[in-house]
Structures are given as structure tokens and as C-alpha cells.
């Protein structure tokens, strides 16, 4: 077993290559940091992890341990093998973006959508669209009537999720959400970093 | 006021141009037909109606009368101005696709994703991805825990929704869902057509 540790800097996006059979552990080091996650097939980056396909595949809004994270061709990319957090994550919401911050009166603000594309470009990849993200540790609960509210995370420092890779080569991108105008990343509104570990098992 | 009627053939996708200020009425002629809907900005088809942005904008899973349908730049494209159905629609699920039918043992089955791209191609447009659809009249309820179940529609013949267009030129695409292996389009499992009307008001 060989472990690789990758620091995920605050307010930025990071590309993490993961191969079939490896497990990626995504660690909420500080406890209240939301991580917007995407994944692409290295062999064809138009093939991406898809929240709408994942919800259909598992018949569930938020994946649990044992569920699969499915791509836009309905092919499992990852299996969720561990989650030490309370399991509160979001698949409903778009990532924050230039458009959202402009509308909030903060044009030019760091944002997860630009983080995704900048991180991909840094790895020599380009994807002409932004898939809906898997917003890990994000606490936007929905009522039985489908009303969505916005709450700070309930995860604790060190909480993590683990996904086992089911395709030959995946490119995971994680953006440490830079939203500092709302409590999405905790009441202190202080976005911070996180960490990944890759296990060869 | 000038009305344009457009028949939406069963099992196929249809492109419907809609201009700013016009209202599109989408009619469930037979009552239990699910309609997978997309919309694109004619000026830049990479700009599309986005379910994840629409949920965020309205803080609600399923849009209601008065809500906006928002594009992937967080810009309102339509306002929902009328809904004579019980308001049961879906924004959670991917459209049916070649991949889904292959997995069900029915490769080559008509599907909404191919319908979208064939309809766009027929109008001289190409979009390199498939946005999550607005599945009008689709009845896939979710439990408070987020478990999704699959039910036949509860809409009645003639039920319709109306959207007012807020951008200069939109391209709406509607696929009359060809799923005939499950009761998604009613217990008879007989997909049928629908109709659109465009009002100059």
C-alpha cells in the first residue's frame, strides 16, 4: 500500500489523478469547509461524474456508503466506501460562479466554477461545460415540499469520505469553496483548505 | 396576439424557437406524457437552462408559478407564469439515454438524450453536452430522507404549463419521452405526443 497526500489550498481548485482500484480519501481538515467535487474520465473528459445520473442510479438525492457515483453515460466511476461525517452533502446546487458573485455585488470574486476550469487547464485538459458538482460536506437541507435552506456544515475536523475508483483513469477536481459572504463554509465565513489521500487499494 | 401551434410527435424531440416576451404553453394533450425539456440561448447555445442553477435561484427543487428558470450563468431565461397541473414535475433525474436502455437490455431504444441532439442538429445547432432536463409532468417523488421513487404522472389531459421568455431568442427542445418499459408515462406504458402553443404576449 502506497499513500499519496495532496494538500488542497484554500479558495483554489486542485486536480487529483486516481487510477482504477485506488481509493481517494477527501479530508475536511478544518471541519466546516465545503468541497465542490467533479470527476472526469482521463480517456475522454466529456465523460464526467453526473449528479443527475447518480441520483437516478441510486434512487437517492445524496449518495451513501455503498452507492456508486455515476458518469453521464450511466457508468459507475466510483463507489462510496467510507464516510466518517454525518453524511450531509449536497447534489442539488450549482457551484458558485462569476455570475453568482456578480449578482451578489462582488464581481471578480474567487469561485468554484473558475477554479474547476483553471485546475483542468493546469493539467492540460479542457472541458467545455461545467457539470453539476458533488458538494461534499455542504449542508443545504430540503424540506418534504422541496424548499431548500442554507446552513453551515455539520462535519467535524478530520471527517472524511472515501471513494474507490472503478474506471482505468479518473481526474478528480476539488475546489475548496471560496464563499466568504455567507455561512456555507461555517459561521466564521473563513474558507480554508483541505487534504486528499490516495491509497493503492 | 398571434398564436402558433406546434405538434410534438410521440417518441421524438422538437425544437421550438421562442422570443423575448412570448409565452410558450406546453400541453399534456393525453395527460400522462412526460416531457423532457431543455432550453438554449440562440446567441450562444453553450448557455442553457440549468436545473442546478434554477434550484439555487429559487431555493426550491421544483419550480412553481412565479419562479424563474435560470441558465448556467445564473441569468433568468423564463418565468413560470401558469401551471394547470398539480405541479408535480422533476428536476432531479437525467433524461433517458442510450446508456440507460443498454443497461436495461434494450440497446438502440429511442431515448430523450438522442432526441435532444437530433432535434438540435435538425435546426443547425450542436451542443457538446446534455444539460440536466426539466422533466415536466414527471412524478418521481422524494422522501424527507431523499429516497426517490418512480410513479406514473398525476397530470390530466389538457394540463399545461406556461413560461414567459425573458431573453432575446431562446431555443426550447422538448422530447416526448419514449420510455415504454416502465410506467413513467402512465400505467399503459404507451408514450404519446403533446403540443405547444406560442403566444405573442
Automatic annotation (TrEMBL), chains A, B:
InterPro entries: DUF1989. Pfam families: DUF1989. This is DUF1989 domain-containing protein. Residues 8-165 form the DUF1989 domain. The lineage of its organism: Bacteria, Pseudomonadati, Pseudomonadota, Alphaproteobacteria, Hyphomicrobiales. It comes from Manganibacter manganicus.
